[in-house]
Amino acid sequence: MYNYGRRSTFGCSLNGKGYTGLGITENLLQLRDFWAYDTLSNVWTRMTDYPGQGLFENTSFAINGKLYVCLGVDNNSICQNELWEYTPTEDSWLRMADFPGVARYGARAFVIGDSAYVVAGSFGYGDNYLYDMYMYTPINNTWIRKADFPGGNRAFGTAFSVNDNGYFGAGISNSYTPKNDFWKYDPRMNRWFSIQNFPGSPRNAPISFVINNLAFVGFGGNPESTTYYNDFGIYDPSNDTWKQFSVPASIPTRTGCIGFSIGNSGYIGVGLNSTGVLTDLWSFVPELNPEPSNFNSTQNNIAQSPDLLIFPNPTSNFITVKSTIFKSFQLSISDLNGNKVSESQFDGHNTQIDLSKFPPGIYMLNLVGEQFNIVRKIIKD
Fold first, then answer.
1. For the segment 196-224, what is each residue's pLDDT rounded down to a tens digit?
2. Disulfide-capable partner of 230 in 63, 180, 253, 373 (CB 3.0 to 4.6 Å)?
3. Domain 10-300 adopts which CATH fold?
4. Top-level class of domain 308-380
């Protein structure tokens, strides 16, 4: 899927497909590419690039067969207030009414009926965090201010909706202090209500999605301690309770990642942890009453596998690609400008690639087979 790993991007599902794009790389390169994920074929397809100016920490939502992306920060660190509508059947973007509040990034959105609610965010550094909320209705392309978020200034939280109520919480209240409070918004009353706190550690930039009217909230990090998480809390709105558990240790911790659900499956991918920016995507199918013992995780697309090893990395001369499962695939290496500098064929259990004549730097190793497309970062000393 990706030419680069990324963080601070968005993830959204629509019409049985997952969508993501934009974000920022490990080298702080801001991206505007846009991708669709087909769960049946396990293939990512690049779509028309995002035409807006806000390229990371955007806000996204889907309504009535269309995807919307708004806000974010441009490559000059200027906050944006644009809103763009994406039509999958035409693979096209159309600019809609600008967000009427302060231009911002790190806001979150939930959808109730035919409207989206965009809440909180930040318009700068330090304590420039916000608590206002606006409702957008595509049918008449209008924004209306609604009840302010009562939990105080907030950015990089997470939001979801269940049974015609919206939910928002976690995130940070200033540059470093993570939160674990959660709130329910009732659109009929235009009021917020405090609910049970998230049971895990307070955190910045968690992800959330809904399966079978249960909300899955997890991952994220703590900027005060540079800690990254891979646990989940499952929220049941019917009785205002949470269950907490850790996902399999094979799924790396991360913050600034994407999360979305399609049918009865949840998807988690990309983001940042102590090893750098990630490129992977994971899927799982929880039971209706999930517990740690029946949380089934499967690896999808571009995640690292114990049956596929690439070493040593970093390297000063050769890298070895080893697999006991995949028997045949194409290998290519590209530089960070996308220029292909090497191609070869994997036809056995081990293949060596000579990098000794390559200039020092970062390269992308692409492995393509019939059922997979794996991208890995290679560091040449």
1. 999 999 999 999 999 999 999 999 999 88
2. 253
3. Neuraminidase (2.120.10)
4. mainly beta
